[in-house]
Amino acid sequence: MKTYKIALLPGDGVGPEVTRAAVEVLHAVADRFQHRFVFDEHLIGGASIDATGEPLTQETLVACREAQAIFLGAVGGPRWDKSPRRPEQGLLELRKAFGLFANIRPVRIYDALIPASPLHADIVAGVDLVVFRELTGGAYFGEKRRGEDFASDQCIYTVIEIERIARAAFQAARAREGKVTSVDKANVLETSRLWREVVTRVHAEEYPDVRLEHALIDSTAMQLIRKPRHYDVILTENMFGDILSDEASVLGGSIGLAPSASLGAEGPGLFEPVHGSAPDIAGRDLCNPIGAILSAALLLRYGLKLLDEASAVEAAVEHVLDRGARTADLGGDIGCQAMAELIADDVLRSVSFSHHVQMHWG
Ligand code: IPM
Ligand code: MG
Hints:
Blueprint: E1 2-11, H1 15-33, E2 35-41, H2 45-52, H3 58-65, E3 69-74, H4 87-97, E4 102-108, H5 121-124, E5 128-134, E6 144-146, E7 151-153, H6 159-174, E8 179-184, H7 190-206, E9 211-216, H8 217-226, E10 233-236, H9 238-249, E11 259-263, E12 269-273, H10 290-303, H11 307-322, H12 336-349
Parallel strand pairs: 1-2, 1-3, 3-12, 5-10, 8-9, 8-10
Antiparallel strand pairs: 4-5, 4-11, 6-7, 11-12
């Protein structure tokens, strides 16, 4: 029996609830596939500010470094709006500390949830795309300045930063439909002009077999609603990816369903649902744990290289949705915990599961 160490950072708002849900499903995976998962829980975000004054402590960083994968619930909330340190800084520092430059956010439409999508069935049926968001550059990490009567956030991209996320997206495309849409604002921004140049060169030199198109962020925001099936792999910079991935996530019915993986060249990856801390519904067993549970599936696949285990979790989510279980965000009355139990149960019981296409990494 193999032992894997997983750092848990539940964080704020609904973070602890969805983390418990993901752990419940991971326990089922351990049972069924005969692994041992050791969970090591630590503070991050607002919870860490309350306890220590800092959104990310050395202790949490050390624990993450010793783990094979990091699972995070959510950070942030209005309680810390006036605090000198913001909860979000903890997450950003963590991404930077581990060099997690590739944020992978898959979006697919479950047949059972087509009626829950805000778009017409004929527009969303069959949507299956993934956003490759650059995660450690751009305006998020440039110099920040504040004067009496001005503020600025510097946006910088280096060639190396663009090359490595572009390669990750092209490699993923090879294992999917073979198409990359690179999204920028090259008609206005210098960083976007560099982005387009570098992506074009990496494509020509290393991935000529992949189809590449360039698109502007504003028009992509529109086309994602008009014809989401057009997209396979969307490659974009940090801020545009933040916005587009929230937009893309509701195609499937709710942002509560969307998972993400953040990976670097080496060291542990970070796995977290796309949704935030949702303080309005926190602590009431109302939130949807599926984004967190699918993030646990990505943790199994990319973090621990347990491919059958990841597919079993994804299949379990689909089975449970097919049987009609719905949390409040999808108009149902199943609680977060009950949903997690249904999915864990399915992982334990179902003997056959479909193999999803594996995305290549590295
Ligand atoms: C996300 C979140 C974060 C981001 C916040 C919480 C810092 O919105 O992961 O998309 O902007 O990257
Ligand atoms: Mg976001």
